[in-house]
Each structure stands twice: as structure tokens, then as C-alpha cells.
Amino acid sequence: MAIPVAVLGAGSFGTCLALLCAREHDVRIWAREQALADAINRERRNPRYLSDVHVPDRVRATHDLAEALEGCELVICAIPSHGVRDVMGRAGPYIPRDALLVSTVKGIELGTWMRMDEVFQDVLDPVHHPSLTYLSGPSFAREIADQKPTAVTIAAQEENFAIAVQESLSCPGFRCYSSTDVVGVELGGALKNVVAIAVGICDGLGLGLNARAGVMTRGLREITRLAVAMGADPITFLGLAGMGDLVLTCTGDLSRNRRVGLALGQGERLEDIIARMDEVAEGVRTTTAACALAELNRLEMPIAQGVKRVLDSEVEPKEAAEQLLARQLRNENE
Question: What confidence score (pLDDT) does residue 333 get?
Fold first, then answer.
């Protein structure tokens, strides 16, 4: 059954989800800039992101949050993590009381160190809290837009809401699984970006496939250790929002965070790398948050801490790798 859908965010992921939803539903996509909304409506494509993909007539772009959200039964938030508090705070009064909400945001808020689910609950009226759901898993926007098979996880504190979103979004080529481990799904999606930068650095240094596999595996161990300390289910990290997303982000050439690491490993400066990117590499911010959360939980995260030292220009990438290899030997499960 067709329902009205709002997608907040006209970046690559918001655009690909608008295209996905438009197969069955009427969609309004909110763009931060009026000029971009006008261009999408006029040209039937997004001139900035996935610009070669046709935007069907069932998608209408707008710069007006009230217009985007009016009467919508499904609201998808696909904006960078640093914009969530502002945008959702402004959007809140216009979200219909009974709407299902989906966050696709993968990050941690700087300063507060809140997961995105905590930020959503902080800024939205409690009436919306039960219907908040969180989408994560191995899902490059480019491949979703090209209708290549994709599997993701939808997490909610009450599984019936996750199942409702699962049924609304699933279609041939886009398969959703449900979960009640919001903490695990949120942290898996955010922290894998840090490991992807580390793997990119290793590849940029030419350290080989053995090193890549080692960093990914020990990185997953770090993610799991922190997430479990914060209340997550360790089983989540064997699934799509854990190992699945980690493998894709660490090895796929479309990964922005991997590309940041590659360039760092090849000797480029972070400022220059960021300046030429047209979208946010969430792992750069999340590295700082991951190290702060590790300190708060009295945990060691040597890979994340090594990445932070590289990003902060405290050590060169080669030196950070050597420091990791020189660490005291220990049991694998520590």
C-alpha cells in the first residue's frame, strides 16, 4: 500500500532512499538549499549526488520542512551526524504524531558523546520515541541507486516498529532484517568508519592483505568491546550492522572513510583530503568520539587511538603502524 514518505537530506544516501521509496510511494525530499531542491524538480536528477540517475515524478523536492513532512507516514533522516540536532529540532513540530521515523545517520555527537538514537530522543517529543528506528548495514548509496542487491538491519526498541519499517522499505533487491539492539546497531554503524580509516592507512602504506585482515579483525574486537560495555548485544557484531558494514567500508572503493585513510597513508594532509571531498567522511569526527567513549568506559582502543594520533598530526602513519605492532603481546580475547 502506497504511503506518503518524507526523506530529510538530499545527499547521496537520502537521494538513493528517495528513489527506492518512489518505487511504491510518493516521496518528498528535503534539501538544505532551495537551489538544490529547485534543480531536482526542474531537471529530474540531483545535480550534486548520483547525478546520472533519473529522479521519478513521484519524488518532489522542497526546502520547506513543514511542506516535506505534512501528512507523512514514514520519515527518513539521512543527514550528516553533526546536523541532526539542528534539523530534527526544527522538524519535530511538523512530524505527524503517528509517523514512523527512520534514521540512517552513522555517527556520534561531538562533545556530548551521544549516539544518534540518544540525540533523536533528546530533541524529539516523547510521543515519537517508541516509533524511532535505525537503519544500518553494508549499503553504498551508489549500489542502492543502481538497484544492486543490498541487505540492511532496522533496529528499534520495540520490534513491531522495526517490522513495520522493514515491510515498508523491503523490495526485490533491498532486504531489511529487524533487530531490537539499538545500541549495537548504532555503534556498529558509527565505529566501523574509524576502522575503515585505519585499514585505508595500512593500504596506503602498502602493508599488504595480511595487515588489512588483521586490522579489520582487531578493529571489530575493539568495536564490540566498547559497545558491549555500553549495553549492546555482542551477537549484533557478527551480523549486517557489525561485520557486514565493516567489511564493506574497509574494502569497498566507494567508501569515503577508506579513501581518507588511503590518502593519509600515501602522505597527504588531512586538510587537503577533506577539502576535495563533496560529502562527509563521518569517521574523522567519530574517531575523536570513539576515543572519548573508550576513556569514559576505561577501555583500550589502540587502533582508534592510533588513528586519532594520525588525524591530529601527532604521529606519521608509518609510526602509528609501528607502534601498534610493538604493543605488548596478549590473549586474543582481551
Answer: 85
137-168 as b/e: b if 16+ CB within 10 A: bbbbbebbbeeeebbbbbbbbeeebbebbbeb
Number of H helices, E strands in the chain: 15, 8
Residue 1 predicted with pLDDT over 80: no
Find out if CATH 3.90.25.10 is the number for domain 4-180: no
d(CA 73, CA 24): 13
Three-state DSSP class for residue 230:
coil
- Please name which of 74, 34, 40 lies closest in space to residue 59, comparing C-alpha atoms: 40
Which strands form 4-8's sheet, in the order they lie side by side? 59-62, 26-30, 4-8, 74-77, 100-103, 132-136, 150-155, 174-179
Query: Which is catalytic among the residues 148, 192, 308, 318?
Result: 192
**Pair 153, 177: CB distance under 8 Å:** yes
* Grid coordinates given for 181: 539492539
Residue spans of the domains in the chain: they are 4-180, 183-325
Question: CA-to-CA distance for 163 and 167, rounded, in angstroms?
Answer: 6
Residue 148 catalytic? no
CA gap 151, 139 in Å, rounded: 7
CATH topology for the 183-325 domain: N-(1-d-carboxylethyl)-l-norvaline Dehydrogenase; domain 2 (1.10.1040)
Cα dist. 150→26, 138, 141, 147 in Å?
22, 7, 10, 8
End-to-end CA distance of the chain: 50
Closest by CA position to 136, among listed 82, 83, 84, 176: 176
Residue closest to 308 by CA, chosen among 290, 326, 334, 325: 290
DSSP 110-160: TTT--BHHHHHHHHS-GGGGGGEEEEESS--HHHHHTT--EEEEEE-SSHH
Tens digits of per-residue pLDDT, 88-105? 999 999 999 999 999 999
* pLDDT tens digits for range 64-73: 999 999 999 9
SS3 state at 247: helix
